[in-house]
Amino acid sequence: MATPKPERGLLQELTLHCRLWLSGVKEGFCLHRCVIYWVHDPTIWWKTVRCFTFNGVIFGGSIVIFKALLAPGFRWLVGTAVPAWASALDASLYLVYTFTWLFPVYIISFIVNCLWYQEIAERAFRVGQQRAVQSGQQAKARVLAGKPMPFPHMLAQELFRMTLFCVFFIQSLVAGCIPFIGPLANFVLLSWLYAFYFFDYKWAMTNVPLVTRVQHFEGHFAFFAGFGSVCTLATLIWPFFEGVAVMGVIFPLFVMVACEADPRLALQQCESKLLDIGPTAGSQLSGNAECSFAQAAPLSASHLCY
Predict the structure, then answer these.
(1) Which H or E run includes 79?
(2) Which of 202, 292, 296, 300 is least surrounded by CB atoms within 10 angstroms?
(3) What is the per-residue pLDDT for 252?
(4) Where are the transmembrane segments (predicted)?
């Protein structure tokens, strides 16, 4: 007979979710796990270097050179030659630079990065499967045996997924305009959005239905808020284009970290610490929360909880 799940008070619920958030933050900082993937598959390393070179050196470096050298030099030259036109010419230079360089490079980087991120995620996923087989954890490796999703269903899910991301991003922008709590709401929503991005690569490769992914995400919302907050903090402290360059550099790192992160285990550990019980009982407590997820995708659940 299964052990009944004890009721938790409001204070315990708040404490549990705070611990889950901190656990997610801790997982987000485990960037050293990327070394495992680089060692097992050098191609992942070279793709990561390409992301750093294109986004950090070329894109980000061009912004630094413009703001630190070109713009001040042009401002000094114009201010010396035609002081009356200095302000207007300086603004014109920035507009020309933005529309002739930043926006085209931003669009190109978006397309190229998507291809690189996908390949990095696929290779990292395979490395995780190989490590699971080598360590004797066959259940985690069997997810690859799942039957591919029919193309019409896959297309419908991708359209729904894109719509979901767009709506969520718009919500974060609108929430940022709310007085007083706007910045905090924007930060939390972006953290959730980034976390979903990172984990969605792994979920998509296990053919988990999108609705099931969302349910799993909602069941561990505090953990994902903490996990995504690390990347959000690293990008929000910069202006838009600088933030895009930083995101392009660190995005593949978080995709690799997400392949190793285990939200279900984090929930079990937090519940065990909260109630001062053993890990077995903690697993039973978390079992009810994961039941619908496991039923919806039995082959994928083992990997998603990995």
Answers:
(1) helix 71-81
(2) 292
(3) 94
(4) 52-74, 94-116, 159-181, 244-261
Question: What's the predicted TM-score (pTM) here?
Answer: 0.80
Instruction: Kindly list the distances between the CA atom of residue 28 and the CA atoms of 44, 60, 261, in Å, as whole numbers in the listed order.
Output: 19, 23, 9
> What pLDDT, on the 0 to 100 scale, is given for residue 89?
79
Domains held by the chain: number: 1
Could you tell me the residue range of the domain that residue 290 belongs to? 15-304
Q: Is residue 8 part of a domain?
A: no
* CA–CA gap between residue 262 and residue 270 (Å, rounded): 12
At 3, phi and psi to the nearest 5?
Answer: -70, 125
In a domain, 5, yes or no: no
Residues 6+ apart with CB under 8 A from 226: 20, 21, 22, 23, 24, 25, 26, 27, 28, 191
Residue type, 7: E
**CA 213, 218, 222, 226 torsion: positive or negative?**
positive
Which residues of the chain are modeled with pLDDT < 70?
1-8, 136-158, 275-306
Q: Which two tokens stand for residue 301?
A: 């659940």
Which pLDDT value is given to residue 84?
Answer: 72
Write the DSSP symbol of residue 149.
P
Exposure letters 183-192 (e unless 16+ CB within 10 A, then b): eebbbbbbbb
Record the tokens describing residue 172, joined without a space.
């974060």
Residue 147 phi/psi, 5° resolution?
-70, 135
